[in-house]
Amino acid sequence: MKRLSMQEIIDIIQTLCYSDSSKRILISMVGIPGSRKSIVSEEISKQLGFDRVGIDDIRKEFKTVLYPGESFDDRLVFEESYKRLKNALENKGLAIYDATNVYPKWRRKTNVITNYYYDISICIFMDTGIINCIKNTNEHDDPVSTEIIERMYNSVCRFPPSLDEGYDIIFRCKEFDR
Description:
Blueprint (H helix, E strand, L loop, with lengths): L2 E2 L1 H14 L5 E6 L6 H12 L2 E4 H12 L7 H18 L2 E5 L5 H11 L5 E8 L2 H9 L7 H13 L10 E6 L4
Parallel strand pairs: 1-6, 2-4, 2-5, 3-4, 5-6
């Protein structure tokens, strides 16, 4: 699979959107923490008008608004994300899901839960080296531990996204600097 730049991927998706504006499109980001998924999803949202559903954003909302100072079951975050994805696809027809999605069962679940709401499912696989991911996540307010990053990296290397998970198209985004 050829590695494409962020802008090359955006240009191809834009062509898809304009070739048939009635198509409902779901884009799922796949990549370990620090792989710059959010930068790509935000850029697609900005350039192409996709509604962006970000797991980190929902988790932050839960921590600061809904459950301040309390613990909560992370499954609630994912349930909320699926609800928002369905809503975005029903209303606008264009949604991008910004989550790690490094495990095949997570990717399949997203496609199964939202299957009724989209016509085309696109995966953008962030092909960023683990060293840069660790460096990038350490620049965040809430860095992810190296142990978790390594575990996720090993999983996505063993089980990269595939068409049999429900995707129609898979793009591999090459590493880039901010």
